[in-house]
Amino acid sequence: MAHSTSLNLHQLHSVAPPHATTATTFPLTFFDILWLRLPPVERLFFYEFPTTSKTTSFYDIIVPNLKHSLSLTLQHFIPLVGNITWPLESSNPIINYVPGDAVSFTVAESNSDNFNHLCSNLCDVVDRQHLIPRLNISHEQASVLSLQVTLFPNSGFCIGITTHHAAVDGKSSTMFLKTWAYFCSKIQEQLTQIPSSLPENQTPFLDRSVINDPSGITEAFVDSWLNYDGPNNRSLKVWDTISAVKTEQVKGLFELTPSHIQKLKKHALSKVKTKVSTFSVTCAYLLSCLAKVEKPKDERVAFIFSVDCRTRLDSPILATYFGNCVFPQLVVVETNKLVENDGFIIALEGIIDALNKLEDGVLNEGEKWMSKIQSAIGNRLFSTAGSPRFEVYGIDFGWGRPKKVDVTSIDKTGAFSLSESKNNDGGVEVGLALNKVEMEAFLALFHQQLESF
């Protein structure tokens, strides 16, 4: 069913921290530089109006509260207000903040009555594009954060957030969202005194000097970017090959319930004879299903997943470290084995092997990562986004939990997203975009395969 995607832009704000701060430069570590020209991360949070709140309160209460709380939040998250640059006099890219910098905050209103359709488990990719805020990215400079709030009259609203991956990883951007929701909910409670400090688990740690690099990973990553279409290419433009929206696609959300996960684990234990995690069986199952549906022509299929390194470094850092602190792991399997009946076990064994190698050090041979990924580019490349540990369905700005959370950036990259189940029952919600024919095949196979275990 086709749906109109027309939109009225009501207001375009620039939101800054409430108090002027001094100019600050934040260096990019090798964890950040890895993502320098990869696509931004986009997420949409859909909220239904409370029964007592309709369109009028959106402009009179919701938008002012979101703006005010955003300003209060940004004073704790200054890197999000700055811009990524790569000055000629600097060997590495940096985030540069100067007083007067601000975050783009767009307020829009949809002319469509498709709120419930957009919140459903299946919808056309093109129907959500107008809800996604854009970063300002040129060869010389890139903004870090952009926000858009869109009203669906008499139904609800959508908060869109786009972040530059070279500035923050998913854990950090989610911490920002939770802090913004914390301040907004306090304003919504009409407290006379809004807290100026944050709970310890939401206080960002901004000192990037805690990231050590004894093996020269930073230099290796910098050289790779400089020599890409180089020499001395300091462009910050996103790779064109993976930044285009595939408009003829359908976005689907699927749930692996706790009973599904236990079934997968039981089957896995009968084959691999080692303890398996929810993450590993979920990814292995999705890889086997996707390979059977897509039937890649490449001899090998590559799978990339990221590991949070905060507790895995030789000198562990705080869980609230703000920036990137994830490092990719690569799994390569033969396509003809993956599409067979035991493709789930083949994928699982590859993931287990990659996880076991972490015992040698999470950054072992990290300086070779760029060349590894370049060698895998010729294969069908799958990857993940998000994590059930982010608990995105608990982000409440004061008007209730989100009805749906959609990682729209995977529509471009071909990744699949993972989050906790919106039912808060221990299940895993999976998001992916496929063309219509593939989506129909995946729907059938996803449920059929589960029944066969």
CATH topology of the largest domain: Chloramphenicol Acetyltransferase
Approximate shape: globular
Tell me the strand order in the biggest sheet.
7-11-17-16-14-12-13
Strand residue content? 15-25%
Number of DSSP E strands:
17
* CATH class value of the largest domain: Alpha Beta
Number of helices: 12
Main sheet, how many strands, which sense, barrel?
A: 7 strands, mixed
End-to-end C-alpha gap: 35 Å
Radius of gyration: 22 Å
CATH architecture of the largest domain: 2-Layer Sandwich
Low-confidence runs of at least 5 consecutive residues = none
DSSP helix fraction: 25-40%
Pfam families: Transferase
GO molecular function, one term: acyltransferase activity, transferring groups other than amino-acyl groups
Keywords: Acyltransferase, Transferase
